[in-house]
Amino acid sequence: MVSSRNWSHNISASRSCCRFGAVKNGAVNGRPHAVSVPIHSELSKLTSQEKDHAWDYSDDTYIHNLDYLRTLQEKRKVTHIGLTNFDADHLELLINSGFQIATNQISCSVIDRRHIRGRMASVCTQHGVSILAYGTLLGGYLSEKWLGQPAPQDLEALNWSLRKYLRFIQAAGGWAAFQTVLQALSTIARKHGVPIAAVATRYVLDLPAVGAVIVGSRLSEESDKYTTSNLAAFSFQLLEEDKALIAQAQEGLSDIPGDCGDEYRRAPYLTATGDLSHHLQESEQDVKIAKAVAEGSRIEYSSGSKWEPIAVSTKSYPARTI
Fold this sequence. Notes:
Layout: E1 2-3, E2 14-16, H1 33-43, E3 49-53, H2 61-74, E4 80-84, H3 88-96, E5 101-107, H4 114-117, H5 120-127, E6 130-134, H6 160-171, H7 175-192, H8 196-205, E7 210-213, H9 223-231, H10 240-250, H11 284-295, E8 300-301, H12 308-315, E9 320-321
Parallel strand pairs: 2-3, 3-4, 4-5, 5-6, 6-7
Antiparallel strand pairs: 1-7, 8-9
């Protein structure tokens, strides 16, 4: 993680324990014991910050999860609570409901400007929430390797990250518009004697409310080279003329649809597969329900509520049907 602040003291680390869907979320219908198991498992490895990620706001389980995290925070088992891919409206809702949110981890780059084009930056600034920006280098597209190159045609030849961020590029105006921005970054990089990635990182670090960027890392013989490249973002400052050049190049971009995190909530899904097939796992019950709906048949379905068995036994109501 590359920070825009001076973290020479009180350096903290975090583990992300994400929970998706009604049944997969821990505190289903307000019962916290299920969520405590994965959280305490993570806390046994590293304690500092816990993040919650909600993809479907119609399922209020994320609020139960956050309420339990707040309980752990009061017991000093969790120091900070952070979010992942929350939009501005729901972030503000949680803050106004009394939750102390430290961070919101969202996609942010020289082509993904949703947090400043929308309300996210102002909400975070007003309430002291730091943005942890990921996707800053677009999986590697913001580098010398892709400068002046044609758009990749064989998606199967791309790694998972490049497939994903190619969709971001397409949503932001296409390959030609992206190349215009990449050329501007290259011009600035040559002037300051740094890699394009350093300019892309510096640009995001200077944006409102951004506390740090999350840079992908892998252990290899070239790890030191990438570390040096990342640190180059602190070796210079963007001049006003640099910022003006970037802004001019960005004029050819289109706004990525929706608010922060909407790429996981509605079309167009900006994932490697273009859908959520590799993010949400269907349970056996999900498959049965989908099949029943498609066939127009009936199936017993339990909501999971602790009140449903009581209602069935005392009122002799049948199980819910679809």
